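Sanity check record (used in CI):
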Amino acid sequence: MRNLYRKPTNLHCNAGSRCSISAVLWSVLGCLFLLHLYSNIDHKDGKVEEVQLRSSLHPQFRELQQAELLNIQIPSPKGKRSPRAAKRRPKRTTTLVDEFMDENSPLRHVFFPGNKSVVDPMKAAGNDSYYYYPGRVWLDTDGNPIQAHGGGILYDEKSRTYYWYGEYKDGPTYHAHKKGTARVDIIGVGCYSSKDLWTWKHEGIVLGAEEKNETHDLYKSDVLERPKVIYNDNTGKYVMWMHIDDANYTKAAVGVAISDTPYGPFNYLGSQRPHGYDSRDMTVFKDDDGVAYLIYSSENNSELHIGPLTEDYLNVTSVMRRVLIGQRREAPALFKHQGTYYMITSGCTGWAPNEALAHAAESIFGPWEAMGNPCVGGNKLFRLTTFFAQSTFVLPLPRFPGSFILMADRWNPADLRDSRYVWLPLIVAGPLDQPLQHSFEFSLWSKVSIYWHRKWRLPQGWSRFK
Ligand code: DGJ
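Expected output for Glycosyl hydrolase family 43 protein:
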């Protein structure tokens, strides 16, 4: 009779003792597995938690991690079509990227707000100060639009000042020939200084174009793009690396310039095809141990190359690794967090915006894993176009480990001098929400997120000086 009342699960246990031994064995194994999992997660996530904790101490940081949504209506196509015409040829659907590239689009003001929305840092007061407005015109302390496109920032320890360098493009946009891309003659590298990362003083053009000598790399009708400056602790020199090209982008080289001060003037030393390869979009990255690296798109933009610079940062060494092979990425922006290297890249679509990817690696030489699109908020198309911008640099905020500023360019191919800056908070924290592209392993890397904000500011206490 008793057997009739046994629960069905007990029916596969013929002998009570055998059942309890296997149950104990399974529980021990289960515990060991959980312990293993926990110790692995703890190894990295412990650090992540620290970031989240630190961030959560600052309510404004929490705010910055909120997804801000955006709703843009695509206007109906210009001109009415008769029903017969509509039948003959199907209407081409207009995408927001088409609207973005069309200088006569009625949505122009959405991407390139006009002068009415200019934020003058010197006149902004009270609650409205220190806000970044991605996509608006940003003025320097003289009231002129900042010209530092495709740029990057150097923090100068000696003067406790930030220096922002970039392409000074304040000239007319034209096409060198029918098939040529939109361009502005080289004017030089613009330099701006700031203590607060918000108020920018123009320090002048720290590396100027060559006006007469047509064979010079910096001859005005050539190309100088993406200048980046790093400081060499051994030589005490400021070293600038930049993309050097001709108007058709066939020279595909990198140039180097040097200065005794962060505010120039920089002395141009020459160009080369690094490691014997073509080199277009590029950046430099100075690691914690003082070793600096050149990272450039190569093999016709089909892959990236990474190689250490010589000790004086003036040349490449013979060491080079090919990474992201066949992935066609450009606009690399490297940064490091808790021993892991991260990189934001764009696709290759000229001045038109496209989808960003975040990548991570344990060694700077790779293997680099793609971790998906880091953009959060806005709307789907905003996320698929990096908020209509292209990465150029990622600036760490040292007081908040895991917090960075993504610097990106919203190019305006109709008028390149009026290209805008899209700076947004970039946070490394939290688990990945999609599997890695090339590895089936359980990844312990943290997620990289770039949060869209119509306006935002750095949390109080971010500064190094306080
Ligand atoms: C995309 C690059 O990222 C830019 O720096 C610039 O070279 C444009 N292409 C030119 O079309």
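The helical segments are 16-56, 59-64, 83-88, 96-101, 108-111, 380-384. If this sentence no longer matches the regenerated tokens, the check is flagged for review.
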